[in-house]
Amino acid sequence: MAVLRLFAQAREAAGTSSVELDGASVGDVLAAASALFGSNFDQVVENSKVWLNGEPTDVAVGVGADDEVAVLPPISGGCG
């Protein structure tokens, strides 16, 4: 099982910062998360960067038991 790490709005939508999920690819892991966390989570992922083991990735890339997939939503803010 790969570990899915969730940050900012993704963490809020899922109600957790990480979860272990089965999947042969990054896309499979995200699909399993979608089934678990629902449509609010899907909306966040649509606008997020997805990384595998600390590097930008594509949904077609394979994952193994020791891999970490991270969902990084855009961060807003700054000086006002």
UniProtKB/TrEMBL annotation:
InterPro entries: Beta-grasp_dom_sf (IPR012675), Mopterin_synth/thiamin_S_b (IPR016155), ThiS/MoaD-like (IPR003749). It comes from the Bacteria. It comes from Candidatus Neomicrothrix parvicella RN1. It holds the Pfam family ThiS. This is Molybdopterin synthase sulfur carrier subunit.
